[in-house]
Write a structure and sequence with these properties.
Elements: H1 2-15, H2 26-37, E1 44-46, H3 47-56, H4 61-64, H5 68-75, E2 82-84, H6 85-101, H7 109-127
Antiparallel strand pairs: 1-2
C-alpha cells in the first residue's frame, strides 16, 4: 500500500508544480480543511459541521458526486457522531484518491492522466481559500 501512496503523491506533486498551494502536501491540505470545518477548535467535527462545510466550501466534483452522507459514512464508520482530525485526514486522502482513480483505468491513458490532473487540482482547490488562517506554514 505504501508504494501506491508514494507513487500517487509523487505523480500528483509533478502535476502540481505551479500554483500557490502546489507545495502543500495532501495531508496539510486536509489538515487545513479540517481546521476550517472545526471552527470551534474542538479537535473533532460532527455531521452537521461536515454537512455545512460540504455545502459551502464547494468540494471537487468527484467528491460532491458521492454526496455528503456517503462521505460522512466513510469518515464515521462506527456511527460515533464525531470524527477526529487524524481520522478525517487519513479518510479524506483515501476518498479523494479512490474518487479519482476508481473506474478510470478502463478508459485509456488520456482519461487516467486527466483524472490525476483533476485529483491534483482538487487538492489545490481544497487548500486555496482567501479567509484568514488558511496558510499553516510552521
Amino acid at each position: 500500500m505504501s508504494m501506491s501512496i508514494s507513487g500517487l503523491s509523487g505523480s500528483a506533486r509533478q502535476m502540481a508544480v505551479s500554483g500557490a498551494s502546489a507545495r502543500m502536501p495532501p495531508q496539510q491540505k486536509m489538515s487545513s480543511l479540517f481546521n476550517k470545518i472545526d471552527s470551534a477548535g474542538s479537535g473533532s467535527i460532527d455531521q452537521s459541521q461536515f454537512d455545512q462545510a460540504f455545502a459551502t466550501l464547494n468540494p471537487p466534483a468527484a467528491i460532491k458526486a458521492q454526496g455528503a452522507d456517503a462521505i460522512w459514512a466513510k469518515l464515521d464508520p462506527n456511527g460515533t457522531g464525531s470524527v477526529s482530525k487524524a481520522d478525517f485526514i487519513s479518510t479524506m486522502k483515501s476518498v479523494i484518491a479512490s474518487a479519482h482513480t476508481g473506474g478510470h483505468h478502463h478508459h485509456g491513458g488520456a482519461t487516467a492522466t486527466d483524472a490525476l490532473s483533476s485529483a491534483s487540482q482538487s487538492l489545490d482547490s481544497l487548500g486555496t481559500d482567501t479567509s484568514a488562517g488558511v496558510n499553516i506554514l510552521v
